[in-house]
Amino acid sequence: MSDTTTKPRVKVRPKVERPRLHKVILLNDNFTPREFVVKVLKVEFHLSEDQAYRVMITAHRRGACVVAVFPKDVAETKATRATDAGQRQGYPLRFETEPEE
Question: Taking the model in full, what pTM does it have?
């Protein structure tokens, strides 16, 4: 017999947690034209005409509407770019982000 002991090889794989998702929320204002809001939703969030219109109307009726859910950095970038598009045109259009539960 040999004096060699063998150990089984065990591969340890660390569990990688998925990044926490954040909601992009369109906030209603009574000054930004509806057509402009739809345009921003189509350009920045790649929504269809119908989807963009439904999001805009929901925000108009309820005061706010979730546009989409992304990883934090993507959500913040899209919200900032969409808000900036409104500000460049002189509108108070606002998008915010918040963590998804």
Answer: 0.81
